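Thread: "does anyone have the structure for this chain?"

Original post by V.I.:
We have the sequence but no experimental structure in hand. Need at least a predicted one for the grant figures.
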Amino acid sequence: MQLYVKLDEILRERGWSGKVLAEKSGVSENRISEIRGNQRTTINREHIAKIMKALDIADMNELFEVRE
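Reply from O.Q.:
Generated one for you, tokens below.
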């Protein structure tokens, strides 16, 4: 089982780039890229909170998905 971050899909739906999210969230563009590509094995809780706030997401299920 793997925790998958749906950030790439969310950004595509909104027409946002990683740079736009970085500017709105205060999380570095490099870190956004790593999270977006599911390259990170850990994600800082503060980064999650900033990303969710920038995207106006209240439910973590909108951002994460468990995959087999």
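V.I.: this helps a lot. The two ends are 4 Å apart (CA to CA).
O.Q.: and The beta strands are 2-5, 64-67.
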